User: Fold these one by one.
Assistant:
Number 1:
Amino acid sequence: MGITHMTTIHSTTLRRSAVHAAPPDELAQRYQQVRRVTEQLGAPLSPEDCQVQSMADCSPTKWHMGHTSWFFEQFVLAAYAPGAERFHPAFAYLFNSYYNAAGTRIARPTRGLMTRPPLTLVLAYRRHVDHAIAQLLANANESLRATICPIIEIGLNHEQQHQELILTDIKHLLSQNPLDQPYVDHPQPARSGDVAVPPLTFGEYEGGVVWVGHDGEGFSYDNERSRHRILLQPYRLADRAVTNEEYLAFMEEDGYLRPELWLDAGWATVCEQGWLAPLYWRQLDGAWHQYTLGGVRPVVGVEPVTHVSYFEADAYARWAGGRLPTEFEWEHAAANVPITGNLLDSGHYHPAPVKAAGRSNGDPGPQGLYGDTWEWTQSHYSPYPGFIAPPGALGEYNGKFMCNQFVLRGGSCATPAAHLRATYRNFWPATTRFQFSGIRLAEDAP
Amino acid sequence: MGITHMTTIHSTTLRRSAVHAAPPDELAQRYQQVRRVTEQLGAPLSPEDCQVQSMADCSPTKWHMGHTSWFFEQFVLAAYAPGAERFHPAFAYLFNSYYNAAGTRIARPTRGLMTRPPLTLVLAYRRHVDHAIAQLLANANESLRATICPIIEIGLNHEQQHQELILTDIKHLLSQNPLDQPYVDHPQPARSGDVAVPPLTFGEYEGGVVWVGHDGEGFSYDNERSRHRILLQPYRLADRAVTNEEYLAFMEEDGYLRPELWLDAGWATVCEQGWLAPLYWRQLDGAWHQYTLGGVRPVVGVEPVTHVSYFEADAYARWAGGRLPTEFEWEHAAANVPITGNLLDSGHYHPAPVKAAGRSNGDPGPQGLYGDTWEWTQSHYSPYPGFIAPPGALGEYNGKFMCNQFVLRGGSCATPAAHLRATYRNFWPATTRFQFSGIRLAEDAP
Amino acid sequence: MGITHMTTIHSTTLRRSAVHAAPPDELAQRYQQVRRVTEQLGAPLSPEDCQVQSMADCSPTKWHMGHTSWFFEQFVLAAYAPGAERFHPAFAYLFNSYYNAAGTRIARPTRGLMTRPPLTLVLAYRRHVDHAIAQLLANANESLRATICPIIEIGLNHEQQHQELILTDIKHLLSQNPLDQPYVDHPQPARSGDVAVPPLTFGEYEGGVVWVGHDGEGFSYDNERSRHRILLQPYRLADRAVTNEEYLAFMEEDGYLRPELWLDAGWATVCEQGWLAPLYWRQLDGAWHQYTLGGVRPVVGVEPVTHVSYFEADAYARWAGGRLPTEFEWEHAAANVPITGNLLDSGHYHPAPVKAAGRSNGDPGPQGLYGDTWEWTQSHYSPYPGFIAPPGALGEYNGKFMCNQFVLRGGSCATPAAHLRATYRNFWPATTRFQFSGIRLAEDAP
Amino acid sequence: MGITHMTTIHSTTLRRSAVHAAPPDELAQRYQQVRRVTEQLGAPLSPEDCQVQSMADCSPTKWHMGHTSWFFEQFVLAAYAPGAERFHPAFAYLFNSYYNAAGTRIARPTRGLMTRPPLTLVLAYRRHVDHAIAQLLANANESLRATICPIIEIGLNHEQQHQELILTDIKHLLSQNPLDQPYVDHPQPARSGDVAVPPLTFGEYEGGVVWVGHDGEGFSYDNERSRHRILLQPYRLADRAVTNEEYLAFMEEDGYLRPELWLDAGWATVCEQGWLAPLYWRQLDGAWHQYTLGGVRPVVGVEPVTHVSYFEADAYARWAGGRLPTEFEWEHAAANVPITGNLLDSGHYHPAPVKAAGRSNGDPGPQGLYGDTWEWTQSHYSPYPGFIAPPGALGEYNGKFMCNQFVLRGGSCATPAAHLRATYRNFWPATTRFQFSGIRLAEDAP
């Protein structure tokens, strides 16, 4: 469930990716940078905060920190640094998220029960692994570098996925504490009344036979491959995301009470879960507030709505007279848009207010495709033509989630910028709300 | 869940479909024919058999009989035969499967609790409705005919869907009775050893930009529309379905015990449900048998495997080194294949042995595309381009199931022949096994 | 769960009970009488009514009819009538409620799925068994009579238990049908306003060392044995049951909304199940009605409240400033009270209005101890001193329910009069509401 | 559920208990002692260990520490030390286990999610409360002392209950960690083969009319009151507890596989939970080991079996041809036995080997009644005669658990010695295994 599962290790893949790997020195430097980000994300947290798993879909910060280190120990050091000793014999078991055979890893929902090793020991584990990787890279000959650099590349992408999850998982945990404490302090943003939401406009796309998928230049996951042609009908894509103000209108028109707006399974979920608003929303003194990583604050109308499930995104679109885009409509529109926006690197950890649509003043495309919130598409997560699950660990970890999940595109305020690209496919079940997920509308072109 | 939900009533649809309606006399005759089939399907059953609902996904035969009659009473007689009295004031409530508003219909899983009205009264209800429809058709002027004929047309297609469900639902019920009694008696088919399974061959298709979907000539459901172009990669499609003998090889190679062959959600289901074979299979005296509508008999190797879920179909395909076709690959291959085969009309109610593939001796296409078993495709059930849920009852009943279901194509031994076409989209969740669902393999063309 | 499980077959028991058995001719006659009652109870029901199981705690009427016949076939005919053939080889499996070993009986919640054999065949089974028993009794010599009469005695008590269950189970089924049809037609009783509820008075009992339990003269179940002495504190017992009018006062004072009135587990049940009134109560046009075996009618104030769980009885008592009696307080008070009242034999199948308490006009004891409703006691169902589960089938079927159930005393309007005695212990879990269970208050004597 | 709920606060109780309170100086000293024990129990634990709740029945150590302090703040300081400020306004909410009204406390199963306040702050809270209580006691006049001392007395008993729970809850948590680390290091005890289990002998008791319950001299909970007479049949009580060696014989004779040995609900639990041995037992290299608070070690035959449910205790007794004692048989036998044994104060935290029965060498009674393990009785937890739930908080917290629980007697290796008495009634549901619960057999006297 979710992007954490996409990581793959397979010799063919590695060899094929090898040519794209960065030079070793640059890689060593980037390794340091990426690993430091993880630790910086943990810095505001106590040992208690890092310990607890607030639901089965989430993992403790401590586990994220151990697991990402285990990845390098397991797939690089154990395989290619023969002298290196394992930091602790039980860590392979404790921090393995992989599905090898029955009994070889702890059940996901019990990760939070592992109070030992303590956080201090996991941080020591990180330093141990970092030191060994640095040494290995420094001393590797050409041939060894050609082998290990692509694996390290994968490990860094894997770690970036977990950086996003550290933020979404800790948000879920802290949101349940009645003390309402923030993860980090942030200045209050503009309030709803201060800024007007710019009108929603649509860009028009001709469609036709277009290319989608990743071409293999640079890093990609295999669910993005291979690059292939599809036939797109003409369509229109909104120039910005749906805002809280717009979503509130849906709520005020009884959006959560009208079964005709919902998918059948969505309505069942609304009834079972008692959904009446996006996740983390609550009413205080008659006004909607939301728990953010900066604490509880009033819902701001000009911000993109976030923490909505696929079901809510779909119901909103139906209510609004539009629909969600397909993942290929999104990718086609994003093909030439630079990857900038309110991403993890901004340190804001919350969607930023939408701006007046760029298209009206000559901007070549829609705003906010990258960052702020992942955008639900109407595309079930399915394999691309030519995708056949290969044998081995890789085969176990790619196609196996291609069932009953929907594709999201574009990254969020918790996604590292260096992790994204136009072809990147994130995926979650239709019920998922704890990710920074939002809505961009589409329409058929007339 | 399933084809029973696809029925739609919407004035626009009706008007649009009107031109395709058969002449009234022909329609009156066909009405009689279709309705009689339903009653013939119920004939071998006792009042007790017709009463019970063996699981939430199934409905009692008595309910199917009442519900299909209610359709004509509700949408034809109540609207266009002003003099006609309702047979019973509570039947609109008891036999409505529609989702109008909270509280207006009985919960689906409790249909089997309604021991009253008894079967005899429901059969009287059928006769009452049939009589009134016949009179209405006989006396209608041109204008009224133009209005009601398309609705009756829908009603007949709706009834045909329920004919298939009567068979699958009663099979599920009777299979649980330790008396192992048949629904109808049938001669034993050829036993496994008697006939050799012909070798599996593949037909090759060039792909390219092709048309899919229904063009609006004749009856169709709106999930088949509109007709549009897509781009198909070259592919190969098996000339026949996977047989029991082949599926047994999968089982003997521990297919149900190897997680690497399964989708993640599929493996979870296998473990939870303890699946070790297709539904209705059991071991007797060391040999696999299966409950059929003709009673319990040995599994016959040359018959297509049936009552497998999407998860099993997908795992089998992975084990066999192939994959499932997309729904468009299937539709493209079927475009010019005549709709013949082992369908409900044959009265066999069980898949027939596969024959030597036609292609080798000049036959223009694959065998068994229609009938025997529905064939799982790898396509999630999603809307076609241009599909927007319209307002009203129609809007409630089309797109609302387009989530977490997979498309099946081709009909089964329980599907009326007149109900099928190349563009017909059946859909069920990936866990479903009580339908006559089977497997046809596909591959990428080299 | 419940009285259906108390039946026991054990050679020691049988021999010990033999001396109390009625003479064979009288027994043959009584056999006929008891068996006819069962069939009369089924007479108003259709094959569909007799087929369905509305929840796991209930059984179909057809099953009750088959199971009670199987009892005689299994324990009398199969053992002592060597010539007698089994009516059908599979019936031992289909109608066995006993727990011999894994896999030898159908799971209780699936009894309603067995649409075959049909009701007609089960009725033929009854006639077959009755004929064989009559012949066996007629031809048995002294020694055989001494053996089989006590078993037949048990079988008749067993059948009487199932007569009560036929009524409670069919009530549960029919109550869920929106047609609200009665099981039998009955004249409307006096309405609430017509008759005043007589004031609640209490009888006083000195307590002390008293005898409780069955002395072995005549039939008894072993959970009533052995007779032993206990020490009772002085207590007071209400002269009549709690009425609907009194219970409505509890409801109007927010009885179902105040956690302080409830046992912890009771409050959890109230919240989970959304209980707001006794089972079968509903509001129509602003007034409380209840489904009875005579159809839906207004709640009558002077009738004893019924279909309340232990939790509701306990909460009511707390609200009323009293408590429930212990089973020994009840038994001591009932010791010399004749077994008369509104029992199954009256054919009313619903509690009758309470009368002015007898005590005021010289009557030696409380009214309504027997019949109308079973009365919850505060006593957990536990073994009497000296009770040790014996080996064999008997051991399996006595002590095994002595956990987390409460004792009820006195029988109901669905209990055959001949089945009751002062020492009779019925028992159900604290959540049970589908039995005719009601409330009698007690207090400590000052 | 369990002893943590028995605490009561009620003005009448307090006033009634006041005469038994210790002198203030002595109380101040004892306050210090009891509170220090709690902190000593937490000393071996990390912040992570103190944070996690391993199942709903358990609570985090941090919560136990906060909750016991809140008790004194809420019921003593807030009421009688007007100047004292609350340490933190939210702590009343976070650390309240009481059931006042909906929404005023956090749901029990989510206690472990409260990562804030951190452990350091909770320890500061303890010091703050301790300081304020010490000052209040030092400065109180006679009248105030008469008021607060009984409340403090209750608070200390309450804290002792939580000391036991700290040990049982942390054991449950650490037992799930694959690192198998001990809570504290302990020397290995004698191994099974080294010491012979002394033969099991029984003491005989005449029974008759005897007194049970607490007489009100010194502290007691109200479920122990009032003292009253009952009539006991003659009985025999085992001179020592059942040992692991004896329990292993039960296991080796397929005790967990034979339904006839189990209560019906017990067998259902065995099947659902897959029980095959007591909690914390596991097989390593073909030998049974158990997780103890000293780590994993071989099961020692001469130690009392512990961590068995009521169901297991009952099944064992049936297998052994005996039964469990009633709570009154136990209390009567224990009436004159001094309260010594392997209790929390010994710091061993694990049952000690049984010794040769005392009775043979002139000892007046059975050994090991106090300490080692709580002993399941066959008595459902029910009110004593005269018990009526009083109004107010007290009423909410006494009778409300008297449903579907069984009484245990005698304390365990985790119970403070000063907390116990012969009349003390512990209670848990029949499924509970995480307490130190064991088995002592009884029999009817001939």
Number 2:
Amino acid sequence: MTKSALQIARAAYQPKLPKALKGAVIAKEGEATQSVADQEAIKALFPNTYGMPLIQFVEGEAVEYPAINVGVILSGGQAPGGHNVISGLFDGIKKLNKDSKLYGFILGPGGLVDHKYMELTAEIVEEYRNTGGFDIIGSGRTKLEKEDQFEKGYEIIKELGINALVIIGGDDSNTNACVLAEYYAAKKYGVQVIGCPKTIDGDLKNEMIETSFGFDTACKTYSEMIGNIQRDCNSSRKYWHFIKLMGRSASHIALECALQVQPNLCIVSEEVEANNMSLDDVVTYIAQAVATRAAEGNNFGTVLIPEGLIEFIPAMKKLIAELNDFLAHNAAEFAMVKKSQQREYIISKLSKENADIYASLPEGVARQLTLDRDPHGNVQVSLIETEKLLSDMVAVKLAQWKEEGKYVGKFAAQHHFFGYEGRCAAPSNFDADYCYSLGYTASMLIANGKTGYMSSVRNTTAPAEEWIAGGVPITMMMNMERRHGEMKPVIQKALVKLDGAPFKKFAACREEWAKETCYVYPGPIQYFGPTEVCDEPTKTLQLEQAK
Amino acid sequence: MTKSALQIARAAYQPKLPKALKGAVIAKEGEATQSVADQEAIKALFPNTYGMPLIQFVEGEAVEYPAINVGVILSGGQAPGGHNVISGLFDGIKKLNKDSKLYGFILGPGGLVDHKYMELTAEIVEEYRNTGGFDIIGSGRTKLEKEDQFEKGYEIIKELGINALVIIGGDDSNTNACVLAEYYAAKKYGVQVIGCPKTIDGDLKNEMIETSFGFDTACKTYSEMIGNIQRDCNSSRKYWHFIKLMGRSASHIALECALQVQPNLCIVSEEVEANNMSLDDVVTYIAQAVATRAAEGNNFGTVLIPEGLIEFIPAMKKLIAELNDFLAHNAAEFAMVKKSQQREYIISKLSKENADIYASLPEGVARQLTLDRDPHGNVQVSLIETEKLLSDMVAVKLAQWKEEGKYVGKFAAQHHFFGYEGRCAAPSNFDADYCYSLGYTASMLIANGKTGYMSSVRNTTAPAEEWIAGGVPITMMMNMERRHGEMKPVIQKALVKLDGAPFKKFAACREEWAKETCYVYPGPIQYFGPTEVCDEPTKTLQLEQAK
């Protein structure tokens, strides 16, 4: 296998561990916990895993542990550092007992159900330390939700003599990990289930989980690119760059990148929704900033756009809902309409309010809304090129203002979408250390007989030495939410808080950033330089954890 | 000004210089030179700057130099390291005499003509050392070609007491630098003109100019991103990523990235042209690789596509030529055709051969070819989304093969275009050192009274200490070419040589890369680590310079 010079050099990196995990540890138990809301309902659903105490690991006496077999699953979208969770877990269980074994289930939770697995030997794990990606065993999006899946999984678990499963995933995967933990506990199968908080989106966090892994590296990688684009923008002085950023619903990535690079504009979906902004409001906001800069002779700038924006615009949400509903019931009739008449047809069928919005959309987007549908017949919002939609509409508005004498300038746009560029980047030192610690902590939770816990590493803005490792009962993070028409226990998704420190910092600066050119150029992630260059956590984390 | 931690740390980097430039130097002159072709014609056009000797700087005795005033111009597209050429030049002329002054002309060659300039003081230069971008004075695309421009320039040159101009640009800008040098020499204005080889595209190189600056950093930045995408691709195993890369006509960037990341496929425009491949041939080549991998259960992969591909497909070139010609003469009539009938209209008007090709193109591209035209009425080939065009056509072909039972698999594509992400990246150590050396060398050429020379730093695969600094008469690189219907003296553009070492290496590996998954993950550019990680030149340079 050919490797780059950096791959080779980086393989030798020894991730930093919290001090307490360096030697023998004992579990210090805190008080019993409660779910964040709907306590009675959650308690009823999780009789065996509700109300468990918080765990913190502290230095202790060496104890002899029996060998254990552990299974590990990567669930959902990739995030930098997944391989380090696995290597931390591997090193942890090997330290407990050198005869412990680690099995990896192939291509996600489906591997457990379909009995596809491999043993992760020292040799294999060695190849993946400090690397990005989930390619060691692959990931997948199968949801572990049903009893027959749990039972199918139990078959292979029994066969391999597995004592515990570690599920590395986002909020839904961790919810399902807890349902599985509860199920195995209720059945007295003696199989522990531990979760690990993964997602570049940054929307799995709360009081006990300071950040999900991968967010740090992904944001730094996107910020490197955006910084480079800003330098270009400020050199050639002739383009507005519309940059869409992955992150699903929440705007954490866009906000973090904004704090890192100081763009001219950054749209925050949560604010758009809170202020009940229309698409035209968003367009006007951007166009106004373009016009203000143009008046100073600056016909260039950058706009960051969160991937999930469209669904946070209340009016667009309503339009999409009506379109989904209408097309579900009239698919056959719609299929008969000539392509050139589809737009008029749709306009004639929608309510007045939604018809007006639909009519205002550029042709390409309007077509996307009616043509590209997922297997359930729903509009695939993620396919909408929001960055082009916005720049097209801004161009139309500016042309109108120009006619009215309200705008003098030139407007030319470039478009970018960053997602796949960051999900599998080699982890930053932060993510390498954090993930390794999460995996190692998971092994300690297993050793202490815990189930239904999420591995937790806190105090992450301090040096790694001072990080606090422990476990959080997953039920503690749950509330009841309506999903597909049914009330379900789920981990609360963390959207950007408009009263949180990161957004407030951004809000305090953004007028200046919009008008002036205050670009910051973060550059590529560094692994070998001074600590302030190599080990700094995200701005989001620094602001959130600032005392 | 807010700066990132890396910006601050990187500002302290002292670029490495060739040993000969560290102390006092003298110019060692070689034999008289000749142009690469059309010697008589070039000699006639450049009576004052033709046939000059090669220059090499070697260690010498310290000499006292009078203070000089130098003007510097950034011409054309940005390339990483431009600021270091300026800082090397600044340090060089200050070392010659501390009262020397450097003036920067604003926003490219236009700044010279329009008398827009600023003095580049130590304080200003300090802010830009080792940074990407051309924002210190901005760049521009004005071509210095006409006598009245030369005369306007001379006015401000006289006013500022400027002894020499340094023009940092690509092949055309350096050609113009030489024309300007010749003009000022003929007029005995006493103004020297020195060029510096800049372009990320890598197409300004020859025996004496081993590489143009910026190519190293841009390729490494794109390779970082492509590597990340490949890791993602190999983890989720469900997408083919079609990745278009900047680089104008030549495929150097795509080829270098291919050598760095080992993608499944890389199209090389020069080969497509040499083999007289049709668009369908290219599509079939890709589809065949997709089908072969699918047969092994691998429904994923990566394809690198050079920006200039379309114009290298002989049939497409002909189609575009006929379209340009037809639409130039029938613009009014075409404007009257209904949008829904434009395609049929065009097909009815083209020659049979071109009509067939036009009819085979996906609708979006066909429209782009007739609608989006530059101010001269020409198709804007750079706007064609080749990456989408190819994946659309591959999808159609695979669907056809599926019906014929020749293909079993799933094909889903993702698209990327990298350009602005790399043009202004902070320079790698190589580009930081190379550029600084080029700028410093330019100051030595000036001190030695040279004009019509390009700054040259060779032996660049050795440690910087051993680099050879000197000057190459620009006329030496020239030949006569037809441009806009007229024979002009120009620097030969270096396309990818199909018998060159980089292409041959790629060609020797590509079958294996296409079939297997041999991805390499270069990761982000490093500045502080081990030398094999931080200082390695491009694969292209290593292969070309290998003895």
